[in-house]
């Protein structure tokens, strides 16, 4: 699969929100206290465009949006940390290396933005994704960091950049 990675655009908002919510429904993951019910999910372009120290990339192939992933300076994180956020792919896209490509792009961007660590949150329902995170150097920690507002998450990881 030859995916193009590019910064999020306004035109991506509706499709990205659909992809994210479809993943939660597919895996029966908690909808309250997660990105599913987060107001920002419908306005990702604006969120990342208006927040200094953040970036969001999407993967697309032949004009079809496959998913995305970003870096966000979540309030309350330790100095030098940002959050790796909203890594979601359409069902047909998973297992083809696109998630790893997006993560690597975000790792590079985070270093360029001056971060030393990335924090991320997930759910047991996303076991394959969690395995991928761990395979890319993310280490589980015992408690959440920062104030993401996603209180339903039960898996927390940190990646040293």
Query: Would you tell me the overall average pLDDT?
Result: 95
Largest beta sheet: strand ordering: 1-2-3-4-5-7-6
The percent range for helix content is: 25-40%
What sequence of helices (H) and strands (E) makes up the elements? EHHEEEHEHEE
Integer-rounded radius of gyration? 14 Å
Flag low-confidence runs. Answer: none
Describe the largest sheet.
7 strands, mixed
Structural class: alpha+beta
* Number of strand segments: 7
Task: Produce a short descriptive summary.
This protein has 161 residues and is α+β, with helices and mostly antiparallel strands.
Q: Any chance you could write out the topology, listing elements then pairs?
A:
Blueprint: E1 4-7, H1 13-27, H2 44-50, E2 55-61, E3 64-72, E4 81-89, H3 98-112, E5 117-122, H4 127-135, E6 139-141, E7 155-160
Parallel strand pairs: 4-5
Antiparallel strand pairs: 1-2, 2-3, 3-4, 5-7, 6-7
Task: Explain what the structure shows.
The chain is α+β, with helices and mostly antiparallel strands. Helices cover 29% and strands 27% of the residues. The protein has four helices and seven strands. A seven-stranded mixed beta sheet has the order 1-2-3-4-5-7-6, with helices on both faces. A hairpin with a 2-residue loop joins strand 2 and strand 3. It starts with a strand and ends with a strand. The mean pLDDT is 95.
